[in-house]
Amino acid sequence: MDLNAMRFKDKIRIADAGRSACAVLYKNHNTSEWMDKNMEELLGQGKNWYKGNLHMHTTHSDGSVSPQEALKIYKKAGYDFVAMTDHWMQSQCGMWNGMLILSGCEWDAGDMVHTPVYHIIGVGMERKVKLTRSVSLTPQDIIDEIDGAGGLAILAHPAWSLTDPREAMKLTGLAGAEVYNTMSGLPWNGSRADASLYFDLWASWGKMVRCIASDDSHGYSGEQTKSYIMVNADDCTASGLHRSLCDGHFYASQGPRFESVSTDGKTVEVDCSSVKYIVFYSNTVWCKDRIADGSEGHASYTVKDTDKFVRIEIIDGQGRKAWYSPFAVNNECKSDKD
Ligand SMILES: [Zn+2]
Ligand SMILES: [Zn+2]
Fold first, then answer.
1. Which ligand ends up closest to the CA of 214?
2. pLDDT surpasses 70 at 29
3. Where are the beta strands (DSSP E) in 32-187?
4. Ligand nearest to the CA of 118
5. How many angstroms does the Cα of residue 145 sit away from the middle of ligand 2?
6. Nearest bound ligand to CA 163?
7. What is the pLDDT of residues 244-286, one digit of tens each?
8. Which residues surround ligand 1, an ion (CB under 5 A)?
9. CATH fold for the domain made of 48-253
10. How far is Cα 316 from Cα 330, in angstroms, rounded to an integer?
11. Could you give phi then psi for residue 53, rounded to 5 degrees?
12. At a CB cut-off of 8 Å and minimum separation 6, what does 112 contact?
């Protein structure tokens, strides 16, 4: 018996698909009565899920495989879209055997000695971004240029870069940051792949930054096709994905699946694939319902009076994670892109 399928029959959304706020009818399993909760679905609804990697390199910069080979690897692994983000080499958008290719590039600022290093990914640009490497180039310059070209800017691997979270918090116009960058982990690097602590610090300071997971594939020696985003969109086009990424209708993953994240401000409900743990992070230091058993693919969290944000991670039996971006609760401020 598929527990997920069974549970979803007990939960009926009655909103029009174009809005994210909706009433949801829940079946109370103790009384078998239907309850109307005014829950806001944060993942989007009634659309399709598309899998993509927004950070990878090829022989056009320091990657070990050709663009053609890289596309073949991701297509074979079932990806719906990718962005080839070679250093300082902007790729064009297009289609490859039914897989969408978004325009992409990775730009950087800082020399690691006198100025901190920032790597910024741009995806979905509609025109060529005009940037020149220079000592005076700032991360905000890069973000503004990407934004001006109609693209989305993502802060790459903040933990690997040892980014000062207070400094990064001043950046405006980021569509997200990498909560996980496969290449920044073992055995390709030290152990700084997971940057989730940054997101909790930013959120506790009032800035909600959206979570992206990417491979940052270079050597294609096991780091490829490991970390990705799942986007809930009308269609797998550059404009469809852009809209959903701006609306926060996506999550980052290494395998586990989110199916629904909803809140009425007092509780947070999560439906997902069967996992070992469902974890609700917030700024409240101690609460007893932070971790839930995820074996049935469902958990609820009661928002505390002291909570400024909630961020959700689900973790399966193999230690693979999925991340849903922090969101404000108790009337704290909203994300940069709202
Ligand atoms: Zn980088
Ligand atoms: Zn990279």
1. 2
2. no
3. 34-37, 40-41, 48-53, 81-83, 94-96, 99-102, 104-109, 118-123, 152-155, 174-181
4. 1
5. 18
6. 1
7. 999 999 999 999 999 999 999 999 999 999 999 999 999 999 9
8. 119, 156
9. TIM Barrel (3.20.20)
10. 30
11. -120, 125
12. none
Instruction: Kindly report the pTM of this predicted structure.
Output: 0.90
Phi, psi of 2 (to 5 degrees): -85, 105
Listing from the earlier edge strand, what are the strands of the sheet with 40-41?
40-41, 258-263, 267-272, 298-302
Residue 243 phi, psi (nearest 5): -60, -45
Nearest-ligand number for the alpha carbon of 217 = 2
CB neighbour list of residue 65: distance below 8 Å, 6 or more residues apart = 58, 59, 73, 220
> How many CA atoms are closer than 13 Å to the CA of 250, on its beta-carbon side?
30
Whole-number Å distance, alpha carbon 249 to ligand 2 midpoint, is 24
Measured distance CA(93)–CA(175) in Å, rounded: 19
User: How far is residue 208's CA from residue 218's CA, in Å, rounded to a whole number?
Assistant: 30
What is the spatial distance between Cα 150 and Cα 122, in angstroms, rounded to a whole number?
10
Name the residue ranges covered by the structural domains of the chain. Answer: 48-253
Token pair listed for 225: 């096709």
Cis before 187 (ω within 30): yes
Span from the CA of 43 to the centroid of ligand 2 (angstroms): 27
User: What type of residue sits at position 157?
Assistant: H
Q: Which two tokens stand for residue 275?
A: 């996992």
Q: For 147-161, how does the pLDDT look when each residue is reduced to its tens digit (9 = 90+)?
A: 999 999 999 999 999
Cα-based distances in Å from 338 to 14, 261, 335: 25, 18, 5
